[in-house]
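BUG-1752 | component: ligand-complex export | severity: low

The export step for magnesium ion jobs runs without errors, but we want the raw record kept on the ticket for reference. Input record follows.
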Amino acid sequence: GASSAGAASRVDRVDRVHRTAATRTFVVADTSSVEKLDPDVVTNFLDFQALGLIYQQLVQYNAKLQLKPELATSWSYSDGNKVLTFQLRKGVRFDDGEPFNAADVVASIDRALTPKTADASASFLSSVKKVVATGTYAVEFELSHPDNSILTGLTSVNFSMLPEAGIKAGNLATEPDGTGPFEFSSWSPNNSFVVKRNPHYWGGKVTLASVKIETVPTEQSIASALEANTAQLGLLTTPQVVDGLPSGLTRHKVLGLAYRALMLQDEHGPLANVDNRRAISCAITRHQVLQDAVFGDGRPVGPVPIGAFASKPVSVVCPTQNLKKAKAYLKKAGDPHGFTFSAIASDAEDPTDSAQATVVQSELSQAGIKMNVQNLAGTAYVQDWLAGKFQAAFAENGANPSPYVMYGRYFGAGGNLAVPAGYHSSTLQKLLAKGDAASTTAQQKPIWKKLSATLTTQAVWVWLFSAYNYAVTTSGVHGFQFEPTTTTSLIGLRTTKLS
Amino acid sequence: MSGDIVLQATAVEKEYPARGGPAVRALRGVTLQVERASTLGVVGESGCGKSTLARLMVGLETPTRGRIEVMGHALEPGRALARQIQLVFQDPFSSLNPRITVAKALQEVLVVHRLGSTRTQRQSRVDELLGLVALSPRYRDRYPHELSGGQAQRVAIARALAVEPKILVLDEPTSALDVSVRAEILNLLVRLQDQLDLSYVFISHDLAMVRHVSDVIAVMYLGEVVEHGPYGEVLDAPCHPYTRALAAAIPVPDPTRRADPSALEVSGRPDAAREPLGGATGCPYLGRCPDAEAVCAEQHPALRPIEPDHTVACHVALRAPRRAPRGPLVERAPS
Amino acid sequence: MSVVADPSLGLPEAREGLQLERPRRHGVLRALWKHPRGRIGCVLVGLVVLLAIAGATGLTPYSPQLQNPLAVLKAPSLAHPLGTDQFGRDELSMVFQGLFVSLEIACLAVAIAGVVGTVAGIVAGYLGRWPSAVIMRVTDMLFAIPAILMALAIVTALGPGWLNTALAIGVGYIPIFVRIVRGPVLSLRESAYVRAGRVLGFSNVRLLFRHVLPNVAGIVAVQVMMALAWSILAEAALSFLGLGPPPPMASLGEMVSQSSSLAATAWWTLAAPSIAIVMAVIGFNLLGDGLRDAVDPRTQSR
Amino acid sequence: MRGVDLDVMAGEKLGIVGESGSGKSLTVLSVLRLLPDPPVRLLGGSITYAGQDLAAMDEKQLASVRGKEIAMVYQDPMSSLNPLLRVSTQIIETMSAHGVPKDTARRRCREVLHQVGMADPDRVAVAFPHELSGGMLQRVMIAMAVAVSPRVLIADEPTTALDVTIQRQILDLVEALHETSGMAVVWVTHDLGVVAQFVDRVLVMYAGRIVERASTAQLFSRPAHPYTKALIGTLPRDGAAHRSALVQIGGQPPDPARLGQGCPFRDRCPIAVDRCAHEEPPLLPAGEDSVAACWRVEG
Amino acid sequence: MVMQVARRVSSMIVTLFGVSIIIFLILRLLPGNEVTASLGVSAGLLSRAQLAALDRYYGIGQPFYAQYGSWLGSVLTGNLGVSLASRTSVASLVGAALPVTLELAIAAMLIGEVIGVVFGVLGALRPAKLLDDVGQGISVFGLAVPTFVIGTGLVTFLASVFHYFPSSQGFVSITVNPWLNIQQIFFPALTLGLGIGAAVMRSTRTAMLEVIGLNFARTARGKGLSRRTVVWKHLLLAALVPIVTMSGIQLGYLLGGTVVVEDIFVLPGLGRLLLTSIDNRDFAVVQSVTLIYAAGFVFVNMLVDLLYTWIDPRTRA
Ligand SMILES: Nc1ncnc2c1ncn2[C@@H]1O[C@H](COP(=O)(O)OP(=O)(O)OP(=O)(O)O)[C@@H](O)[C@H]1O
Ligand SMILES: Nc1ncnc2c1ncn2[C@@H]1O[C@H](COP(=O)(O)OP(=O)(O)OP(=O)(O)O)[C@@H](O)[C@H]1O
Ligand SMILES: [Mg+2]
Ligand SMILES: [Mg+2]
């Protein structure tokens, strides 16, 4: 914990920043707030984005969601793909001026894998047996089995490279110290998070002197802040608000790194019957759901929404809504007049849940299927979801370019989300393991294609859509690029100029 | 008068706890009795404890010390002798529930005390009661606010009579009423007493009224009875200086006579101080008494007979020669 | 010199002890109708209730749930007098239904607060001593906890739904009823006619229910109107914070908060439920005003 | 209330009697235009004081008459004083309103409090109304009224809420003030005893009208109007036997809002004749200094 | 007097103690714990060992009385505990948020009182005249339109028409930049003040109409006092008790209202802190903030009572 004196001085610092650099502070407005400063334990999007300005990882995605070097310049597998070796970038310094080297990598990964840290992504590195420094700028990961998704995992902010000294001192939760373009300046919980230009940054000149992420709790207010130019960048998710903005503002949009699905349980009840699940899948028009939930501002997606292995957005069973086929499936299932099930949803988790539920309910009823919707408060939903206490659940799940990272935890052997996934199949388990072990993209492609096909033909869940995320900038902002991944979506600020 | 005692109060004291101070001693050892079919008049200035006495008599409150017996039975805490003794309040309007009609108010009493087994029996009893107080049955379904003050007071009396009590305590039954209806209520009370063999405790400020209806009069001052006796003696030949002042203060509705100003020499604070000026031991009337002597400051005067039926609590009066009857009144000089 | 008294305007000085009296029921209604604001309140509330009943019984132009993908976000027209929403549902029909849901919540909330608060207030006022002390202390505590937190806690603990929203709002309003009722009961307990009842040997139960309760009915009724107005607004605020009853049976507050982001593109989706809220709230307030004057004997002629 | 003629002569003591609701208060309040408007409105007539018509004055002009020329004392002293202001504040502001300088006013405040018989004027001055008894409050009211030496004092039942002994003191006090300053007094009451002992001339009101006007001696010795007679008759008189029946007026006063034509007292009148039912009697001479509104008066 | 104050203070403490227990129990009834609240569905990704470590960190599974005791201990020592979500001291969070809410509440109260009393008094003096109608209009509007509609409307209007939204660049304390601070507080205070003003106006108007008919008002006029003295000295003073009562009640509700308004106008006040902390199941923060609200409420009530005795000498026992 932090002493109260420390926190108070941080608050003071906010004021000071305001006074001296009011005009030069670049303000980013978001409805949520930065909740934690320890990169290993953060889970919410804004925390990723904010800490992504300070910290860097070994590897990262580029705009096309391909892996690219970050603090590692290159990597290679050896020993039957069971050893992964990274060559580290030289001349990198933390913002306190200390140089970055292999010891920092070892300490960082060890910290993430210690249970006490409670790193939320630790399971992605479950194959890591040991990390050793083989030189000042070389690190070896010893794996228990061949695992290519580990690279994907390493892009997460949860595996940021931290200074060994800071880890030992145990003060990173309050005083971040990273190698990124910006360095931590101040944080006022629930309100604002301020970073300033990192003078030791290795990746070129950063023009913005300081960036402040300001919590503006409603999107309507963010819109107003942009219009009043008291914020230069607004992060929005509601298309209606974006539509209502005046023309002087620049809109950037990327497909969000989350997909919406109607998760179905096959354990008990009507949904245990695959044909009933297929009937549901056939009765739903994804375009309509997309239209009504987010005003069409998104894309219907299949199991793998993004990246090199993105699946066709439609189900193999019913490419479009087909009520006839839905009825046929119902007949086959022995419930020709339809059946009733209930679905949980939570507007606290995803504000479009109730809209989705409204449409889906209406469409299913055309096929004679009655869906009762139970709208739960956020934590109640989380509890039921985690315990698998639902027949169906409207869910917003994280997407990842790596299908293994996305689905291994649900359908893989020993996946820790097997309970909410609610579907067990050895076929899927095998597919996932095989895909994880395959070392090249070409090898992986057919495997992941098969995975998508299996998931949809079995109608394990009903995949609905991914929505856009918006970044709106004011007219004086130049050079901002909205990166497609959550981790790095604000990294475009590195090259942003303010006129 | 028969010697039959229906109500006996013995050394009754009542204290009210007061916030941040000593308790208010509203009654300080009152001993009184009421005889069957007679009227006890109680007079005294505002705040001297008349209403408190009334509340104690009907069992609304219990005495702090002392004892009250009604028809030979001691009043016990929480057990009102509703069937024996009833109270008629000063303001008839506020003592009647504004939402209940005349007939319903009377019936409720009959129902509660299971008087009359059938509805028709009760209804005829209601008519009978209204007849008793000379109200025509067309007032049965009126609400209190649709009655005049006199009528409302009749209803209140009828309600009290519904339980066939032996004693009525009347706490200023006419002072909220108009002059013109006062006579009407007094006449009614006198008639009812004769008709039903009732005993009254009649509390009032109005000496003329009290004199007119009472057989025996008790004069109270600061929670004590200071003079007690037959009406004629107490009011026409008052012994206690307070009674004298009281009698003299009343404007006589006759321009040819005028009160004797000398009887009115009330010095000191005219508003009754809560604690007697005589302190714990002296006479409570001390500070205001024109005749006070040294002994008055030292010794609390007890109620002692000055005539067989007439008692006074005054050191001076018991020694001094009786004043002439009607003393305070003199002929007015022609203007 | 001539002076006239206008009997309709009432006596300025009330007789002591008649403070809470209400002689006759139709008298209240007539007084209410004569009261200029009371009359508007009656009309508005009547209208609101009628529309809500229409919404509940399906007497609406369209089914409130009927989605029409071909008529999404249409501005008001003859076919849809208040336009349509993002699902192509008819706003007018939804407002009717929303009114019903809002009233349902408000009524239940006020019923909870009114019954619990009034009973507690009467007990506290009539029994005095320690029951009163306990009740008043608990009331103080309830009062001191921010209503929003209470509501948050109740809705989060029990889950969203109109019953729980109503409970959340009701609990927050209990202390008001307790306080409003206790004072008059305290003075009624000492009133001459309750004393008269005691002297006549009436039991406490009889005195409480036949003589005390009817005489606080007036102020309770006034407070009920105010509470209804307040509850509708409170429900709207809870909806704004995401604690309202969930769709598809949306309350007015939920409708407003859902459409507040559409204000720029489809103003009618915000305007329609807002107007309904304002109408209902004004109606109940005015009705309460009227009722207050109607049950006040000081504004009654003898 | 209709056609009430009220004339007060300088330095006289006038009494107004009548039962509750007969319009006594309205009459005296209308003199200073203090009627509770909206419910009650002054419809017509004139109120003349020293040649000026008060009915035609605006509020500003009225303010200079109120309190300064004509002062009032009201029935219920507890509610007629502002409970939130000290006694001295209320007395001093009266004087300030009529142009008395602050320090003179302060001195005079003490003086008048002493004058109305306060043993300890300084203590009373700093007291709040609730700290004083009814009798003291009524004296404060009188002190406030006489502080600016008005020419007329109107007292509307100032002693009904008080004890007899205290009432007596107030009566004596006003009597003394009247005698020393020669101010005229209008004393409203329903107590015939007060009338008999205290005033020179009496107006008897019934149902919003004056039914008899007479000197006090005349009124008691030869009451002219049957209502006056009845009123005097209701009192337990000296000679009456113990517990004997008292005279009752019987019936009820008419509803002032529903007065028909004819004499308003006719329903309760023991000597009513046909004429009384449709013709309202004017004030007819009934003795040397007495007029009565009754057809049956013997002139 | 001393006795009375002592009694008041002790009853205040009892109330606050009761409140803290009620709050504590309510919070424990909420589904979810710190872990699921802070991680959401991602909590499912944690391994058993990780969860055990977190449980230990948050003190999950400790008996209630131990949790309550440790929180109470930290309150009594004045640091109000540690926010486990942000790992900072609650005192520092509250220290930053309290002044904002306090300033907002005071400003809203001021605006509400001015609107309410002025229109209430003037309206009561000339019922059904233009000024009264305007006042009644404001009061109906303030009472009936939900705060968040007024607030959102105001924000949208100012931004789209005047390109003005002073609050969104971060709240500035009044000691740093008074002018900007006043701009930031004014509009949210106005939003809240309208509602308060409406309520105060109604009770002022009613109270004024009531006292206008009272006997002492007649006495005041009868003494020849000027109209202004009668109205602003005698009548308003006498009407003050119901006005103060209503203001006290409004201040109580105001605390709830700040939650919504702080959201819309981007003010980092207690209301927002409370909401986020409930979402995060950050119990120490919720309990302490609620306790502060409750203390504020109880304090205001005491102030109202003191005002009563100041206004009305009869209540000075
Ligand atoms: N419930 C009570 N609590 C405290 N003091 C009381 C209570 N009831 C009466 N007293 C006090 O007891 C004294 C006697 O009061 P009581 O009402 O009996 O007088 P009273 O003679 O009836 O006066 P009045 O002629 O004005 O009716 C008064 O000083 C009064 O203040
Ligand atoms: N504000 C008012 N509104 C309506 N009627 C009124 C009002 N004030 C008085 N009246 C009526 O005017 C008539 C005369 O009233 P007023 O007060 O003058 O009687 P009063 O003789 O002074 O009676 P009391 O002896 O009770 O004081 C009564 O019938 C009364 O009902
Ligand atoms: Mg009494
Ligand atoms: Mg009068």
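Assignee comment: Attached the raw record above. Residues 3 and 95 of chain C are 53 Å apart (CA to CA).
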